[in-house]
Specification:
Layout lengths: L15 H8 L6 E6 L2 E6 L2 H12 L7 E3 L10 H4 L9 E4 L2 E5 L3 H24 L21
Protein backbone atom coordinates (compact mmCIF):
# COMPACT_ATOMS: atom_id res chain seq x y z
CA UNK A 1 0.00 0.00 0.00
CA UNK A 2 1.52 3.28 -1.07
CA UNK A 3 -0.53 6.30 0.06
CA UNK A 4 0.29 9.74 -1.22
CA UNK A 5 3.55 11.25 -0.06
CA UNK A 6 3.15 13.39 3.02
CA UNK A 7 3.55 17.13 2.66
CA UNK A 8 6.94 18.55 3.56
CA UNK A 9 5.67 19.62 6.98
CA UNK A 10 5.43 16.00 8.13
CA UNK A 11 2.87 13.29 8.29
CA UNK A 12 0.01 15.37 9.69
CA UNK A 13 -2.42 17.45 7.68
CA UNK A 14 -2.41 21.20 8.14
CA UNK A 15 -6.21 21.34 8.08
CA UNK A 16 -7.35 21.58 11.73
CA UNK A 17 -10.69 19.90 10.95
CA UNK A 18 -8.91 16.93 9.33
CA UNK A 19 -6.53 16.68 12.29
CA UNK A 20 -9.47 16.64 14.72
CA UNK A 21 -11.36 14.03 12.68
CA UNK A 22 -8.27 11.80 12.41
CA UNK A 23 -7.52 12.22 16.12
CA UNK A 24 -11.03 11.01 16.97
CA UNK A 25 -10.17 7.74 15.21
CA UNK A 26 -13.41 7.96 13.27
CA UNK A 27 -15.58 7.85 16.38
CA UNK A 28 -17.01 11.31 15.66
CA UNK A 29 -16.44 11.92 11.96
CA UNK A 30 -16.71 8.55 10.25
CA UNK A 31 -18.09 8.57 6.71
CA UNK A 32 -18.53 5.82 4.15
CA UNK A 33 -17.30 6.01 0.58
CA UNK A 34 -19.35 3.95 -1.85
CA UNK A 35 -17.51 3.54 -5.14
CA UNK A 36 -17.89 0.69 -7.57
CA UNK A 37 -18.65 -2.38 -5.46
CA UNK A 38 -16.72 -1.10 -2.44
CA UNK A 39 -18.05 0.42 0.77
CA UNK A 40 -15.09 1.78 2.72
CA UNK A 41 -15.06 3.74 5.99
CA UNK A 42 -13.12 7.01 5.67
CA UNK A 43 -12.38 9.87 8.03
CA UNK A 44 -11.49 13.53 7.40
CA UNK A 45 -13.14 16.95 7.28
CA UNK A 46 -16.20 17.46 5.08
CA UNK A 47 -14.36 19.51 2.45
CA UNK A 48 -11.45 17.12 1.95
CA UNK A 49 -13.75 14.07 2.02
CA UNK A 50 -15.85 15.70 -0.74
CA UNK A 51 -12.70 16.35 -2.80
CA UNK A 52 -11.54 12.77 -2.25
CA UNK A 53 -14.94 11.43 -3.38
CA UNK A 54 -14.94 13.62 -6.49
CA UNK A 55 -11.47 12.47 -7.52
CA UNK A 56 -12.34 8.79 -6.92
CA UNK A 57 -15.47 9.28 -9.03
CA UNK A 58 -13.36 10.20 -12.07
CA UNK A 59 -12.35 6.54 -12.42
CA UNK A 60 -15.71 4.85 -11.97
CA UNK A 61 -18.53 4.28 -14.41
CA UNK A 62 -21.15 5.07 -11.78
CA UNK A 63 -21.27 7.64 -9.04
CA UNK A 64 -19.09 7.70 -5.98
CA UNK A 65 -21.13 8.54 -2.91
CA UNK A 66 -20.11 9.77 0.50
CA UNK A 67 -22.47 8.94 3.36
CA UNK A 68 -22.28 10.19 6.93
CA UNK A 69 -24.18 7.14 8.18
CA UNK A 70 -23.75 3.39 7.85
CA UNK A 71 -25.23 2.43 4.48
CA UNK A 72 -27.94 -0.18 4.14
CA UNK A 73 -26.20 -3.53 4.10
CA UNK A 74 -23.32 -2.09 6.11
CA UNK A 75 -19.69 -2.80 5.28
CA UNK A 76 -19.59 -6.23 3.64
CA UNK A 77 -15.94 -7.08 4.15
CA UNK A 78 -15.39 -8.62 7.61
CA UNK A 79 -11.77 -7.43 7.64
CA UNK A 80 -12.88 -3.83 6.95
CA UNK A 81 -15.60 -4.07 9.64
CA UNK A 82 -13.07 -5.28 12.20
CA UNK A 83 -10.14 -3.16 11.07
CA UNK A 84 -8.08 -2.13 14.05
CA UNK A 85 -6.42 1.24 14.03
CA UNK A 86 -3.67 -0.06 16.29
CA UNK A 87 -1.24 -0.02 13.36
CA UNK A 88 -2.60 3.28 12.10
CA UNK A 89 -4.55 4.05 8.98
CA UNK A 90 -3.19 4.99 5.59
CA UNK A 91 -3.60 8.67 4.85
CA UNK A 92 -4.25 10.21 1.47
CA UNK A 93 -3.11 13.83 1.48
CA UNK A 94 -5.35 16.29 -0.34
CA UNK A 95 -4.00 19.83 -0.47
CA UNK A 96 -3.63 20.87 3.20
CA UNK A 97 -5.84 18.05 4.50
CA UNK A 98 -5.92 14.28 4.56
CA UNK A 99 -8.39 11.42 4.44
CA UNK A 100 -7.83 8.32 6.53
CA UNK A 101 -8.88 5.00 4.99
CA UNK A 102 -10.22 2.72 7.73
CA UNK A 103 -10.25 -0.55 5.83
CA UNK A 104 -8.42 -3.80 5.36
CA UNK A 105 -5.19 -3.59 3.39
CA UNK A 106 -6.73 -4.97 0.20
CA UNK A 107 -9.60 -2.48 0.10
CA UNK A 108 -7.50 0.45 1.33
CA UNK A 109 -5.05 -0.26 -1.48
CA UNK A 110 -7.91 -0.43 -4.01
CA UNK A 111 -9.29 2.94 -2.88
CA UNK A 112 -5.85 4.58 -2.83
CA UNK A 113 -5.12 3.29 -6.34
CA UNK A 114 -8.51 4.57 -7.52
CA UNK A 115 -7.75 7.98 -6.01
CA UNK A 116 -4.30 8.07 -7.64
CA UNK A 117 -5.81 7.11 -11.01
CA UNK A 118 -8.42 9.85 -10.53
CA UNK A 119 -5.64 12.35 -9.80
CA UNK A 120 -3.91 11.38 -13.05
CA UNK A 121 -7.19 11.72 -14.95
CA UNK A 122 -7.83 15.11 -13.36
CA UNK A 123 -4.35 16.32 -14.26
CA UNK A 124 -4.77 15.15 -17.85
CA UNK A 125 -8.14 16.86 -18.11
CA UNK A 126 -6.68 20.02 -16.60
CA UNK A 127 -3.68 19.98 -18.94
CA UNK A 128 -5.66 19.12 -22.01
CA UNK A 129 -8.93 20.81 -21.13
CA UNK A 130 -12.21 19.65 -22.54
CA UNK A 131 -10.95 20.25 -26.09
CA UNK A 132 -7.55 18.60 -25.85
CA UNK A 133 -5.65 21.86 -25.48
CA UNK A 134 -6.75 23.05 -28.94
CA UNK A 135 -8.41 26.31 -29.86
CA UNK A 136 -7.75 28.24 -26.68
CA UNK A 137 -6.33 31.73 -26.34
CA UNK A 138 -3.37 32.73 -24.14
CA UNK A 139 -5.60 32.88 -21.04
CA UNK A 140 -6.85 29.34 -21.70
CA UNK A 141 -10.28 30.58 -22.76
CA UNK A 142 -12.10 29.19 -25.73
CA UNK A 143 -12.39 31.85 -28.43
CA UNK A 144 -15.73 33.29 -29.38
CA UNK A 145 -16.55 31.65 -32.69
CA UNK A 146 -18.28 34.84 -33.86
CA UNK A 147 -14.90 36.62 -33.75
CA UNK A 148 -13.35 34.29 -36.37
CA UNK A 149 -13.90 35.73 -39.83
Amino acid sequence: MNPNTAPSLGDKPQCPDCRAALASGGRQALSFLLVGTLTVPVVGCDGHLAEFRAICELTTEGNAELLDHLPAGGVRCPACRNHSQGGGVPLVFIEAGAVGIIACERHATAIIERYQAGQQTRQQLGANGPHGGRDTDAAGELPDLDDRR
